[in-house]
């Protein structure tokens, strides 16, 4: 049964369909008003049920995140090396930019050759407070 609660909570829902060069297909849902954290779900080959996880964001004001970010900036300045692959930021920002550009172009499919970048993820988490 459909309650209509989601439609009441989310005034401007949006869905963006993303196809990566390696064949991965993702859907980005913007459900502001219903969800304030990040949630990830996927289907895993060989498993019937999808798996998901929720990334809990700090409460506002987001001072903790800003402190962690500044620690990474200090690390980069003192070592002269970015503490994580800058290509990751390029991909995230580029994907979000193209999602919004597609929306402006009435949901037109956009190719993104400038996002054809590769990087190796760090062995340890770069999340604030994560064990090294």
Strand tally: 4
Distance between the termini: 46 Å
Order of helices and strands: HEEEEHH
Beta content comes to 15-25%
Average pLDDT works out at: 86
Strand order of the largest sheet: 1-2
Q: Could you describe the largest sheet, including whether it forms a barrel?
A: 2 strands, antiparallel
Structure in a nutshell:
The protein has 132 residues and is α+β, with helices and mostly antiparallel strands. The chain contains three helices and four strands.
Can you describe what's shown?
This protein is α+β, with helices and mostly antiparallel strands and 132 residues long. It is 31% helix and 17% strand. It is built from three helices and four strands. The radius of gyration is 18 Å and the shape is globular. It starts with a helix and ends in a 28-residue tail after the last helix. The model has no long low-confidence stretch (mean pLDDT 86).
Can you lay out the helices and strands and say which pair or pack?
Elements: H1 5-9, E1 14-19, E2 25-30, E3 38-42, E4 51-55, H2 63-79, H3 86-104
Antiparallel strand pairs: 1-2, 3-4
Keywords:
17% strand; two-stranded antiparallel ribbon; 3 helices; 132 residues; alpha+beta; globular
């Amino acid at each position: 049964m459909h309650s209509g609660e989601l439609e009441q909570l989310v005034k401007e829902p949006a869905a963006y369909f993303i196809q990566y060069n390696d064949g991965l297909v993702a859907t980005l849902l913007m459900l502001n008003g219903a969800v304030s954290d990040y949630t990830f779900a996927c289907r895993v080959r060989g498993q019937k049920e999808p798996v998901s996880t929720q990334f809990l964001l700090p409460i506002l004001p987001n001072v903790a995140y800003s402190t962690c970010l500044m620690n990474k900036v200090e690390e980069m300045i003192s070592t002269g090396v970015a503490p994580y692959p800058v290509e990751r930021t390029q991909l995230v920002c580029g994907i979000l930019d193209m999602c919004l550009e597609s929306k402006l172009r009435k949901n037109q499919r956009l190719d993104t050759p400038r996002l054809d970048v590769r990087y190796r993820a760090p062995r340890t988490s770069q999340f604030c407070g994560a064990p090294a």
